């Protein structure tokens, strides 16, 4: 862990353990320990970078997994840089894609970026956060600079990326502009002189490109910290607005509470691990209590209240619990409910109610909506023409009919 030149103090070892909690991988751990120690010795904060592309206007709980880690590093006294990828959004991140991702227009990016930092400030301390846009250094590069940058990375290295390899072998087209995405994200690290870059596990290749480009430009190579991807409400796909399995951090307390209570008892522990600020020991104690007979629903309530308090207030959390219990006073959401797979989406709510067995006919389904007896993820449905996109939903009719409906893409 330490080197003869830079012995690692107990304080830095403690900081390192805090950084490692919940992370998937820290590369290179010994290098980062030295960076932490040098920072403490010199009083010079490290530069910690996180880049997010404003591909949608809202931040969801999945984004906060890495934002929470940034806040920990911020509280240690380091400089955190919240980088909005307004330039790279126009390329489109191919990570995890089996097809070319359509780039966003400048207008779409500007609309989405307006809300990003405001929402991220619910996690980060805005007074201690440096906000940057990568168009600052990417736009001035121009064609000449782009060609010079491209000369510093080989096609062979780029094809080491899993999704590119699979698409190439499968005969699925790869556009040349997609090679530019990891290259430009890597160049962000050069421009910002970052010491550590954070991202989800699906970003590992891009983060490593930044590390290699820094060496090419004569800089000290950044370390990289990857965080697990949070599964969405379906417990299968990663949380994503496009899959409609997400919980937005600006949703109403009632909506957040209902969605959190809809997750499975198994998925609940994953959410505790990645989202809760409780200590690992406290979480282990809760798990033991459930093993000994405590109702997992009560533990799920604790999680929902913690998260709603964080993004709203303790009073809002109490109110959401009271509203939830009032809605289901005569029958709680069942631990087990029918799992229905329908699709492809979008599907009309009346068709869903009929095919899920929650209404005997389209006419009855329409009558249930008119009478205010239909809810989707605890939210009352008022429009008989409501269309549900691909995703997983808890659909309820009256107080006792429930189904977990998955609409396929």
From TrEMBL:
Single GO cellular component term: cytosol
Domain of life: Bacteria
Entry's Gene Ontology BP terms: tyrosyl-tRNA aminoacylation
Binding site for ATP: 241
InterPro entries linked to this entry: aa-tRNA-synth_I_CS, aa-tRNA-synth_Ic, Rossmann-like_a/b/a_fold, S4_RNA-bd, S4_RNA-bd_sf, Tyr-tRNA-ligase, Tyr-tRNA-ligase_bac-type, Tyr-tRNA-ligase_bac_2
GO MF terms, alphabetically ordered: ATP binding; RNA binding; tyrosine-tRNA ligase activity
Domain RNA-binding S4: 349-391
Catalytic activity: tRNA(Tyr) + L-tyrosine + ATP = L-tyrosyl-tRNA(Tyr) + AMP + diphosphate + H(+)
Protein localization: Cytoplasm
Keyword vocabulary terms for this entry: Aminoacyl-tRNA synthetase, ATP-binding, Cytoplasm, Ligase, Nucleotide-binding, Protein biosynthesis, RNA-binding
One Pfam family named in its UniProt record: S4
Motif residue range(s): 'HIGH' region: 54-63
Gene3D superfamilies listed in its UniProt record: HUPs, RNA-binding S4 domain, Tyrosyl-Transfer RNA Synthetase
E.C. no: 6.1.1.1
Classification via CDD domains: S4, TyrRS_core
Motif, 'KMSKS' region: chain positions: 238-242
Role description: Catalyzes the attachment of tyrosine to tRNA(Tyr) in a two-step reaction: tyrosine is first activated by ATP to form Tyr-AMP and then transferred to the acceptor end of tRNA(Tyr).
Subunit architecture: Homodimer.
UniProt record similarity statement: Belongs to the class-I aminoacyl-tRNA synthetase family. TyrS type 2 subfamily.
Protein name (Swiss-Prot/TrEMBL): Tyrosine--tRNA ligase
